[in-house]
Amino acid sequence: RRLICKTDAICLRFSPVSETSRAVMWYTRDHGRIVTLIKGSQRPKGQFIGQYDSFASCELLFYHRNRERMFIARECSPVKPRNGFRAHWRACAGASYLCDLVIRATGIQDHHPQLYDLLDAALDELHEGGEEVSLPSLFWFELKLLEHLGLAPRIEACARCGRALEPAGGTVRMVPRAGGVVCASCMEKESGRGIGIRRDVLAVLGAWQKSRSVQLARSTRCTSVQATGASRCLGHFLRYHLDHRLPSRRIAFRLITRITDAAGTTPQIGLSGGKGHR
Fold first, then answer.
1. pTM of the model
2. In angstroms, rounded to a whole number, what is the distance separating the alpha carbons of residues 32 and 26?
3. Phi, psi values for residue 163, rounded to 5°
């Protein structure tokens, strides 16, 4: 039985199926991640011309059938076209990464009700910021995505013994397979796994994880050392739990952090998640 469904949807990516039709991947409020076939979308006078684009939030009407993995789109109307991404390449790089992260973190029709609102708000944040992209805002999104998936890292207490971490001093490591940070006394059981994490970076991550709004992350002024530490820690954790490399993350962060020094060169701050240990 085929049903007509109406939902809010964010365009994650699209690809050609024929000279006139496209397959579009969406993250929807009511059905999770889906793929629709948009027939005739490339015809000069087609009804879908200008009705969707990458990173746009739309109102989507499609035919749903349980056994199908690709549905047929019937109507599509842009609600937030976000055309500014065409002019601001740093923001576009950030949006590309967030959409790719959602694709890699979710399965087809894997429904997480709050994830749609999280992605919609994050794309608004990037679009409104233009070229002023806040890396802490992207880190906040990663933490909240992990939370909605039930994979939030344990930061304020040892993931092994459950004891609160000392407020200062001592060595701690982020160990993804343990589910978070591991204290010095429990590290002997980890055989060198994980990566070391500075206390100031740990404190910042803990504050972002508690925050229900991106405002705190947006107003945080991180040093390059802190940003690199936060990125390595979260990148290591994401790679382990999603079981995916994230080249889009590395590329986006390198583009966003590119700066020009007095000599005219463009050094880059290293923000890779690294290989780490499984």
1. 0.88
2. 8
3. -75, 145
